[in-house]
Design goal:
By secondary structure, the chain is α+β, with helices and mostly antiparallel strands. It folds into 2 domains: 245 residues, Bira Bifunctional Protein, Domain 2 (BirA Bifunctional Protein, domain 2); 96 residues, Anticodon-binding domain (Rossmann fold). Helix content is 40%, strand content 21%. The strands form 3 sheets. The protein has an 8-stranded mixed beta sheet with strand order 1-5-6-11-10-9-7-8, with helices on both faces. Strands 13-12-14-15-16 form a 5-stranded mixed beta sheet, with helices on both faces. It has a 3-stranded antiparallel beta sheet with strand order 2-4-3. Helix 1 runs antiparallel to helix 6 and helix 6 packs parallel to helix 11. The radius of gyration is 29 Å and the shape is elongated. It binds histidyl-adenosine monophosphate. The site of histidyl-adenosine monophosphate has 27 residues, from strand 6, strand 10, strand 11 and helix 13. Keywords: Aminoacyl-tRNA synthetase, ATP-binding, Cytoplasm, Ligase, Nucleotide-binding, Protein biosynthesis. This is Histidine--tRNA ligase.
Length: 429
């Protein structure tokens, strides 16, 4: 009796990156690492799994992420509440505290990798997505806020991206937010009749987020609500001005958006987002800001900090709109053989070619010349090296140049002695 097995598919909102597109990811990652090194940022890697309380405390209980988007579970082996990281910042701060990294000097650090949020998937919004996360820990001044933004402008330029604009706001300090919050709650109480269910639920717990609504029926109410910016004191305004002036120095345009509050609770003073109209509904490519209270909140010695994260899927979507990246070839040399002796010799010759730094595929198994040539063509190799009985007898290989432009003045196929094979291929592929 034959048994049929059902296919197992990837989870909704979680995507495979296949070899053809993986090259684009690797290219972006290489550019990003160089770009970050240019500003003194060093890589770190933190675990995907953390204690749930790290995120509830760090990101805030009354946020979309903590309320409904975290992949959390109880580890039945030791009854611990664990969560797959929904962002990097909390984990990076935890690690820096745990390893006493902030006692000696401030730290410029970054991480790349997957993060997890149980959101409704659509273009640009996934349940497993990837962030480039950059954090400057232990820096208080507006110079570092501005440097991070200038850095991002450089990245867009390096990647040939236009049409990304900067939105900027200041969330002030806790006491300023408290004064604004009281005024805002009073205002919301006066406008209860237009608030939707979510707004009513949040008006006392997170009233600022009520203004971040997408509900058209609430727009007018939100537009006329008391603005946090108007509650900022002298020091907060001076910090904000310090950032703005440095952006002007660098020739970076920005729009002051007093409604920009971000979806995580740890921010104070500067917050910013880079947005584009080229990605449909999910147009925020990068978001960040200052979070001077988080290190203390997570048990560290109080220290200021600022950072941002870029969504890699969104960035790659923009990059591929800017210019179609071609998948690089699988190899430079493809080895074709006929008969067991030739196959074994091909395997040894390939090792010699790899010693010289060439990328080589040896045809696996035995098949006819025609089908081996088809594979060689599809591999993108510039040369096929052919071995059969005649070649073995004369200690030479037939080399066929597969790309017309590489043949030059030479014949399309030539016989090359084994002793010269590495040199000839190395010079021509
Ligand atoms: P965030 O705004 O939640 O900030 O996320 C940063 C970026 O991740 C977004 O601007 C967007 O490009 C991308 N992103 C968010 N959700 C999704 C999703 N479901 N699918 C695809 N891409 C997504 C943070 O995570 C903060 N930790 C940033 C930060 C670092 N602030 C200070 N330091």
């Amino acid at each position: 009796m034959t048994q049929s097995f059902q296919k197992v598919r990837a989870l909704t909102g979680m995507k495979d990156v296949l070899p053809d597109t993986s090259a684009q990811w690797e290219g972006l990652e290489a550019t990003v690492r160089d770009w970050l090194a240019g500003y003194g940022y060093r890589n770190m890697r933190t675990p995907v799994l953390e204690h749930t309380r790290l995120f509830t405390r760090g990101i805030g209980e009354v946020t979309d992420i903590v309320e409904k988007e975290m992949y959390s579970f109880t580890d039945s082996l030791n009854d611990e509440q664990l969560t797959m990281r929904p962002e990097f910042t909390a984990g990076m701060v935890r690690a820096c505290i745990e390893h006493n990294m902030l006692y000696e000097r401030p730290q410029r650090v970054y991480a790349l990798g997957p993060v997890f949020r149980h959101e409704k998937p659509q273009r640009g919004r996934y349940r497993q997505f990837h962030q480039i996360d950059v954090e400057a820990l232990g820096f208080a001044g507006p110079d570092v806020d501005a440097e991070l933004i200038v850095m991002l402008a450089r990245l867009w330029k390096l990647l040939g991206l236009a049409d990304i604009r900067l939105e900027l706001n200041s969330l002030g300090q806790a006491h300023e937010r408290a004064a604004h919050r009281a005024a805002l709650i009073e205002y919301l109480e006066q406008h209860k009749s237009v608030l939707d269910e979510e707004a009513l639920r949040r008006m006392y717990t997170n009233p600022l987020r009520v203004l971040d609504t997408k509900n058209p029926a609430m727009q007018a109410m939100a537009d006329n609500a008391p603005r946090l910016f108007d509650f900022l004191g002298e020091a907060s305004l001076a910090h904000f001005q310090g950032v703005c002036e440095r952006l002007q120095d660098a020739g970076i345009a920005y729009r002051l958006n007093p409604r920009l509050v971000r979806g995580l609770d740890y921010y104070n003073l500067t917050v910013f987002e880079w947005v584009t109209d080229r990605l449909g509904a999910q147009g925020t490519v990068c978001g960040g800001g200052r979070y001077d209270g988080l290190i203390e909140l997570l048990g560290g010695k109080p220290a200021p900090a600022v950072g941002f994260a870029i969504g890699m899927e969104r960035l790659l979507d923009l990059c591929s709109q800017a210019g179609e990246a071609e998948a690089p070839p699988e190899c430079q040399v493809y080895m074709i053989h006929q008969g067991e002796a030739a196959q074994r010799r091909a395997a040894l010759l390939a090792e010699e070619l790899r010693d010289a730094g060439l990328r080589v595929i040896v045809h696996a198994g035995s098949s006819g010349f025609k089908s081996q040539f088809r594979r060689a063509d599809a591999s993108g190799a510039k040369a096929a090296v052919i071995l059969g009985d005649d070649e073995l007898a004369s200690d030479s290989a037939s080399v066929k140049w597969l790309r017309q432009e590489d043949a030059g003045e030479q014949p399309q196929q030539e016989s090359v002695g084994f002793d010269r094979l590495t040199t000839v291929l190395k010079n021509r592929v």
